[in-house]
Amino acid sequence: MSRTRPRSPFRSTALAGTAVIAAAALTGCSGGSGTANADQKGGEGTRPETRISLNLSGKQAKAGEPVRVTLAEGTLKQVTVTDSRGARLAGTVSGDGRTWTSARKAAPGTSYTVEARDAGGGSATAGFTTAAPEKVNKLTLAPGKNTTVGIGQPLSVVFDHPVKNKAEVEKHLRVTTSNNTVGSWGWMQDWSGKDRVDWRPRQYWQPGTKVTLKAELNGVDTGAAGGWFVRDYTTTFTVGGNQVVKVDLDNHRLKLLRDGAEVRDIPMSGGTPGGDKASWRGKTVLMSKEGTINMRSETVGLGDAYDKMVDYSMRLTWSGMYAHAAPWNAAYLGNANRSSGCIGMSDADARWVYEQVRVGDPFEVTGDDAKGTQALNNGYGEWNVSWADWQAKSALR
Fold first, then answer.
1. Which of 114, 176, 231, 363 could form a disulfide with 245 if both were Cys (CB 3.0 to 4.6 A apart)?
2. For the chain, what are the domain ranges?
3. Any idea which fold 11-129 has?
4. Do 243-384 and 11-129 fall under one CATH topology?
């Protein structure tokens, strides 16, 4: 058995911004002869030093680039890149075995340790730290994690800061479903004025569909004025039963359909036609069940028309259109549209609807007694856009 020569210390030298690391390869048993390999001078058998180079180095390395580890000679066997929190970057080795490239990009303000081994047993270790971001972007996801929602609920992502690099961000938003649902992302400006992107299926969700969004954004630059993402996000939800609320403004009726069958037909009164108090028409989505709330007309641009505590409030738009109890409008329920834009019902009927519906259920509002179709960003108005037009809103089309 041959003696192994002590491993030489690693050497690290910066060459034109690239880290170069060398380590002595270990010798092993020679083909059963029991003697050491000999070099040309007749000394103990050794291999040349293993040398690798990194495309990133130092304490202010550029974020937003894949990590590349290149071997000067031989073949890479294994490369491990670990950040300061213990997370690893996955990667692949090139066909010639000389270069390893990470699948994801280096995140800003993060320290990384690189460990590389070659096929001959040599190894090297290096480290670098990326520059801290000047600005960090964050996001808000809907629906909430592990929720059950209606068949009309889209995935919705609202960003804290502007997103200039929309295509780059969209590439890192990965949606998977339990039944391979076809869908698409669409960009818009949220009602709040912030950038927003929603994912909706071609048609309403199939009941029972399980949906997962993995927003693998750590290390993605959103562009000028937006900043960097410094973490990943994820949310999961399940689609509940097939339930649709149909609101007929002209006939003053609200119907709840379950699996296509009518469950109940309720008299209602919509918004007063002919002005700002009229209701919106179109396919909207129940955004939230808010219970008893104080509704004030000045918050929706209607002066001092009303200031009421309203029961069984179900939000349909950001602009203030709700379905709710309206006992003060009893004379008009089923007869005329005389509200300030909302869908009013009796206390008993509103309570029943409130108990039956879930967030994400579609409310399909039809009729001529409307002030127009709900805007795309006024709540979830994407179901009023054709599938072709919706697909065109993707940054990757």
1. 363
2. 11-129, 139-241, 243-384
3. Immunoglobulin-like (2.60.40)
4. no
**Minimal CA–CA distance to 103: which of 125, 81, 76?**
81
Q: Please, what is the Cα angle at 160 between 159 and 165, to 5 degrees? A: 55
The Cα 277–Cα 261 span in angstroms is 32
Q: Which residues have CB under 8 Å from 73's CB, separation 6+?
A: 48, 50, 51
pTM for the predicted model, two decimal places: 0.84
Domain 139-241 listed as CATH 2.60.40.3710: yes
Q: Contact 339/270 with Cβ under 8 angstroms?
A: yes
Does the bond joining 9 to the residue before it have cis omega, within 30 degrees of 0?
no
Helix (H, G, I), strand (E, B) or coil at 328: helix
Query: Cβ atoms within 10 A of the Cβ of 32, count?
Result: 6
Q: Note whether 111 and 127 are within 8 A (CB).
A: yes
| Residue 176: other Cβ atoms inside 10 A | 12
Strands 11-15, 76-83: pairing is: unpaired
Which CATH homologous superfamily contains domain 243-384? L,D-transpeptidase catalytic domain-like (2.40.440.10)
CA gap 153, 355 in Å, rounded: 18
Q: What is the dihedral of CA 282, 285, 288, 291, to 10 degrees?
A: 50
Residue 70 neighbours by CB under 8 Å, 6+ apart: 52, 53, 54, 55, 98, 99, 100
Q: List per-residue pLDDT tens for the chain, 397 residues long.
A: 434 333 333 333 333 334 444 443 322 222 222 222 223 333 444 555 678 899 999 999 999 999 999 998 899 999 999 999 999 999 999 999 999 999 999 999 999 999 999 999 999 999 999 999 999 999 999 999 999 999 999 999 999 999 999 999 999 999 999 999 999 999 999 999 999 999 999 999 999 999 999 999 999 999 989 999 999 999 999 999 999 999 999 999 999 999 999 999 999 999 999 999 999 999 999 999 999 999 866 666 656 666 789 999 999 999 999 999 999 999 999 999 999 999 999 999 999 999 999 999 999 999 999 999 999 999 999 999 999 999 999 999 8
CB 230 within 8 A of CB 108: yes
Cβ–Cβ < 8 Å for 268, 367? no
